[in-house]
Every structure is written in structure tokens, then in C-alpha cells.
Amino acid sequence: MAVVQFMVSLDLSVVNLGLPEIAESLGFSELGLTWVIHAYALAFGGLLLLGGKIADRYGHKRILLIGLVVFGIASLAGGFADVPGHLVAARVAQGVGAAMLAPAALALLTATFPSGKARVKAFGVWAAMNAAGGALGVLIGGVLTEYAGWEWVMWVSAPMAALAMILTWRGIARDLPVAPEGRPDVLGALLATGGMTLLVLGIVRTDRYAWSSMVTLSTLGAAVVLLAAFVYVERTTTRDPLVRVGLLANRSVAGANTYNLIFGATMASAFYFVSLYLQRVLGTSPAETGLKFLPLAIGVVVGSVIAIKLGYKVPARTLMIAGALVSAVGFAGFGMIDSDGSFLADVLVPSVIASVGFGLCLGPMVSTATHGVAQHETGTASSLLNSSRQIGAALGLAALSTAAFEYSGKEGTPSALSDGYAFALTLGAGLWIVAAVIALVVLPRVSPTTPAEQDDHELVDVPEKAV
Fold first, then answer.
1. Considering the entire predicted model, what is its pTM?
2. Which of 232, 366, 377, 435 gives 20 to 30 Å between its CA and that of 331?
3. Do 260 and 442 meet the contact criterion of CB atoms below 8 Å apart?
């Protein structure tokens, strides 16, 4: 599951530094190039709820393997693309595969480690690989683009998908479907997928259409209508609902997903604005920029290890509050960047602080989002968590980018750009304070382990019906 999550996280960021070379090689227009990113985000975010439900209904291992096959083939096909449409189609297929495998993988992790020290360790490792994949994706993308060619930012995921398939096939017992056997809620699935897709589409296109434009307002309005209809259908349907409304009333699920919206928004913004600051203001190359993101990956691992050590004695809610406050300090440091800054003072120190905060809260947050969830709904809860992060990343990046642009004006000078980036990252610090308040007020206080779970060698048995 760690390999799977590393691959999915890496794919979200590895393409970014290859975009200029992709545009030159395939003839993308400036407008069309954005769809290399948007195509993946739309398919992934729009189909996550459906992917989680399918995993619950037809078996987590089976859907994980299918998703890995789709993802791996799409990665290979993308590298061989010779026209813009082929690459965009490959990115859509990658998103479809990711929407199947991501919730299935997290559901398997949740079912295998339901409680105790084993759960703390498992989610700590998962958290480290999750965030490290995003950070290392920038490094790998920069190196591959500069020294091997843009095709490799697509091909690099294929061997990881193959490795994950082998590990899944050999290391995970065959599981039987755990969802109810009633008739599937087809209408709910269509409404949720359509609503999620339009919501993400409306947000990611705000770089071209203002928030107040008719295009944005109509797209987001249609998304709200579809999602409202989805909630109504879920409350009244006689079929097996895509998302049981009662699941959203679970304080752990609701609180963790709200917290996760902010996590996705701030983490995506940190990668985006710091990368632009290094390249456009400090003048570093793509490969060097990727290398300078390495401390961020290391910091996440350090924070995750600390979370594992403290997770045996400290409630997850406390770790999430601490992680949010530490991240807020890091973002406040980012808010002090200027055009005469340096990597050491303006990037390295805030990156280490913020990334340790990421690592502190990520594992506990994911564990909390699936706490107390029935086994037949683990895939659904996992897809909700992935959806909230995708929406948070899209919404946060769009909103903070708009704020940065408005603050810096249209000058485009290094001084103006750095001022805009600094303002957006300072807003990110404020969002982390909000996340700390959400964790304090909404999340229930749950003790980390029971006395019987303190044994370091405890192994949690998977229920017989799931094996």
C-alpha cells in the first residue's frame, strides 16, 4: 500500500516541471497545456466516490489490481504520445486508474490494521510515503525532464505500478466483497460523479475565467445542483446508496475530511508557489529546483516518525492540532520571502518546519477519517478522504493563486511576484490555524490505544469473512 500511495502522490507532481518541454515537443497551446494537469485531476477527483463504492462491492484487492493495470498502461501510453490529444487521453486514463486504486488501497490498510500499535505504525509509514511521493515527484520530474526527456515523467510510474501489482498479488489475501448485495444506486453514482467533476472543473479553470465570470458561476452552480440532488437521492433511495448519509454524521469522518480540505489546499499551494519562487525569482533550473524540494520530503518522514512514536500515547486529535500549528509556523516563514532572499533562509528553514507539521498530522488524520467506520464502508470512507484532498487542492490553489495575482498586480517583476507568493503563503498559515480549531472543536477525543494493544508484537487478524 505504501508503494501504491507513493506512486499516486508522485504522479500528482512529477509532470509539473516537464510542462514547458511537453508544450514544445507536442505543440500544446498555452491554454491547452493546462489540460495535462486538469485531465488527471478531473478524472481522479470526479470518480473517487464511485471507485470507493466499487471497491467495497466487488472486492478491494480485485479493484486495486484492475486500477494498477489501467494506471500502468496509461503511463506507458502517455510517454509515447505524439499529439496533444493522446497525452490528455492518457492522463484521463491515469485518473480513472487512480480513482479505483487509491480508495481500495486505503481500505485494505484500514481493514488489515483496525487498531492498536500496528495501526499507528502502518498509517505512519503510509503518511510518510504519501507526502514524500509528492515532494520527490518534483525532484524526479526536474531531473528526468532535464537529462532524459519529458517522456520519462510519464514512464516512471509504469515500473512502480508493476511492482505494486506483484506485491499486491503475492502479499494480500483474496478478499470477498463486503458491501451490501442490494441493487446499486446508479442514479446517485451519476449525480455524484457529474457533480464532483463539474466542481473540480469550475475550480481549476479559474486561472482563465474569473470567479465572478458567467462560465465559472454556471459551472459551479450546476455542480451544486447535482450534488444537492445526490444528497436527496441518498436520503430517499431504496437501493444501496453510494454514500450513506449517516456516515457523514460521524464526527471523526466529518472533522477529518474538513481538516483534509485545508491540508490539500496548503500542501498543493506550497509546492506551487515555492517552485515558482525558486525558478522565477531566484533563477534556479528545473533540476536544481527539484533537488531543493528534497528537505521537504525528509521533513515529512521525520514528522511521520515522530507521529508514530507519539501515537502510542497521544490521541490523534492532539497530533493533528500540533501538526497544524507547526505547519502554520512554517507557512508564516514562507510569507517572509522576498526578491533578495536566499534558499537557506527563505525556503529551506520554512520547508523543514512546514514538512514536519505535515508529517505529524497526515497519518493521524487518515486514521481518524476511517475510525469507527464499518468494514463494508471503508472503501467509501477512503474515497471521501481522497476526494476532500483533491477538492481542497484544486480550490485552495485556485483561490490562493487569484489572491497572489491580485496582490502582485500585472508587473511581473521578481519583486512583485515574490510579494504575491508571500501573501498567498501567509494566507496558508491562516488556513492552518483554522485547521487546528477544527480538530479541537469537531474531532472526538479518542485514546490512542487500549492496554491490551500496547504489545509491540501484536498482530491484528483480518475478519474471516474478509479473507
1. 0.79
2. 366
3. no
